[in-house]
Amino acid sequence: MNTIRTKICGITRPEDALAAAELGADAIGLVFYAKSKRAVSIEQAQAVVKNLPPFVSVVALFVNENEQTIREILRQMPIDVIQFHGDEDDDFCRRFDRPYLKAVRVQSAADIQTACAKFPNARALLFDAYHPTEYGGTGQSFDWTMLHGNIGKPWILAGGLTAENVAEAVKISGAAAVDVSGGVEISGGVKSREKMAAFIQAVKAV
């Protein structure tokens, strides 16, 4: 029986991070992108991770951020993994001495194969729904059947996942890890313990 890994992204409150950890999330995501309704400052992010238990990974999400800002955040924060959601290339993503995830907005199966070639140093790819102007967190899903088969790199499924559809999404796509944000929220950046519990329970039941 395979264990599906779960990341709760867009955490803005310490109590939500603790709840996610208590419920069994493997990672939490912090959004350092000012245009996002889930954006956090360094001070907010420090408060979020301050009391996290061991072995819960902290992922920092950036969208077309400059190198200096990223380095400053890494200097002030215990970040385990970086997630790039913009137009960054592999050379930029690998500069920061952290494993990195590269988000890919999927329109076709070709996007999946192209990403594998373009980001050889990514720890994993994160496949999300395509949106012409938004960089993730849209609540939209895509055709999960495009992911079934040998992709050639570790990957994570994101995009419109909820407690109601995540089991089906995993079965159709073959995902070994899932990423949820809006699907477990009361409002932008405010998580629901009940929704997180239902989501993680659904994942574990697959």
Automatic annotation (TrEMBL):
Domain of life: Bacteria
Residues covered by the N-(5'phosphoribosyl) anthranilate isomerase (PRAI) domain: 7-202
UniProt pathway: Amino-acid biosynthesis; L-tryptophan biosynthesis; L-tryptophan from chorismate: step 3/5
Record field: catalytic activity: N-(5-phospho-beta-D-ribosyl)anthranilate = 1-(2-carboxyphenylamino)-1-deoxy-D-ribulose 5-phosphate
Pfam families for the chain: PRAI
Swiss-Prot/TrEMBL keywords: Amino-acid biosynthesis, Aromatic amino acid biosynthesis, Isomerase, Tryptophan biosynthesis
GO molecular function annotation: phosphoribosylanthranilate isomerase activity
GO BP, sorted A to Z: L-tryptophan biosynthetic process
InterPro entries reported in the protein's UniProt record: Aldolase_TIM, PRAI_dom, RibuloseP-bd_barrel, TrpF_fam
Documented EC number(s): 5.3.1.24
Family in the record: Belongs to the TrpF family.
NCBIfam families (alphabetical): PRK01222.1-4
Name of this protein: N-(5'-phosphoribosyl)anthranilate isomerase
Species per Swiss-Prot/TrEMBL record: Neisseria flavescens NRL30031/H210
Gene from which the chain derives: trpF
